[in-house]
Design a protein that fits this description.
Blueprint (H helix, E strand, L loop, with lengths): L1 H20 L11 H12 L25 E4 L7 H8 L6 E5 L2 E4 L3 E4 L10 E7 L2 E9 L4 E10 L2 E12 L8 E4 L6 E10 L3 E10 L2 E10 L14 E3 L1
Parallel strand pairs: 1-2
Antiparallel strand pairs: 2-3, 3-4, 5-6, 5-13, 6-7, 7-8, 8-10, 9-10, 10-11, 11-12, 12-13
Length: 239
C-alpha cells in the first residue's frame, strides 16, 4: 500500500516540477506590475549619444618673419657688427645709411652718433657708496660701441668684475634717455650702451650735465650677486 502511495505522489509532482523548469512560451515568471512599469519608462527614455571628441587643431606656426632693413655703409669698420645686426632687425625703419658719425633714416632724417668720449682713449669714472667703490674704465671704440672694464671693490679687494663691449641702443636717434643725480637733484640727458653675455645684462648710461660727464650703470645677472638697479646706482664721475 505504501508503495502505491509513493508512486502516486511522484506521478502528480513530476509534471508540476517539469512545468516549473520550463515555463510556457510568452510567460514571464519574474515579472511584476512594478517591474513592467519601470521597463516601459526606460524604453521611452532617450539614451544620449556619447560625446564626439574632436582632435585639437595643430598649432599654426608664424611663418611671417620681419624682413631686415636695408643698410648702406661707407665704412663698416666704424660700427660694430652687433649694432648693425640689431639696427637691421630693429623694425624702426626700412632703410638706413651710415656715413661716419651720421645716421640717415629713410633718406629723410639725419642724426649724429653721440661722441661724448674721445675715440680710443680710456677714461675712468668712479663713485663710492656704502663702503664700496664702483670703478668703470671706458673708451669709445667706434661710433656705435664702447669698450669697458667695471670693478666693484671693497677696500683694496676687487669683489666683482665684468668687461667687454657695450653697444648703443638702436633707437638712440628717437631721443635721449634721462637720469637724475641724487646729489644735486638735477636731471640730465644720457645715452645707453648695453652688453649682454652669459645670462648677464650690463648697461652704461653716459651723459653730460652742464659740461660734467656722468655715468650710471645697471647690472642684472642670473646669479643676482652684486646686481645694481638704476635707482640705486650712484653717479660715477670722471676721475
Amino acid at each position: 500500500m505504501g508503495y502505491q502511495i509513493n508512486v502516486l505522489i511522484l506521478a502528480v509532482c513530476f509534471p508540476l516540477f517539469f512545468s516549473c523548469e520550463n515555463p510556457a512560451p510568452g510567460t514571464n515568471q519574474s515579472s511584476t506590475p512594478e517591474l513592467d512599469s519601470l521597463l516601459a519608462e526606460l524604453e521611452q527614455e532617450e539614451i544620449p549619444a556619447p560625446p564626439v571628441i574632436e582632435p585639437s587643431p595643430a598649432p599654426i606656426e608664424d611663418t611671417d618673419s620681419e624682413s631686415p632693413a636695408k643698410i648702406t655703409l661707407q665704412d663698416d669698420s666704424k660700427y660694430s657688427k652687433t649694432f648693425l645686426n640689431k639696427l637691421s632687425y630693429s623694425g624702426l625703419a626700412n632703410e638706413f645709411e651710415l656715413a661716419d658719425s651720421l645716421l640717415i633714416v629713410e633718406k629723410l632724417d639725419t642724426f649724429v652718433f653721440p661722441m661724448e668720449l674721445p675715440e680710443n682713449e680710456w677714461t675712468n669714472f668712479i663713485a663710492v657708496k656704502g663702503g664700496y667703490t664702483l670703478s668703470l674704465d671706458v673708451a669709445r671704440l667706434n661710433f656705435s660701441t664702447l669698450g669697458f672694464n667695471y670693478e666693484l671693490r671693497k677696500g683694496n679687494q676687487t669683489i666683482d668684475q665684468i668687461n667687454g663691449e657695450a653697444h648703443i641702443n638702436t633707437g638712440f636717434f628717437l631721443g635721449s634717455e634721462s637720469d637724475e643725480d641724487p646729489q644735486t637733484g638735477a636731471s640730465y640727458f644720457c645715452d645707453e650702451y648695453t652688453f649682454e653675455k652669459q645670462n648677464c645684462y650690463f648697461a652704461i648710461r653716459l651723459g653730460n650735465d652742464e659740461g660734467i660727464r656722468k655715468v650710471k650703470i645697471i647690472k642684472d645677472c642670473e646669479s643676482g650677486k652684486y646686481d645694481i638697479a638704476l635707482e640705486d646706482c650712484p653717479v660715477l664721475l670722471e676721475k
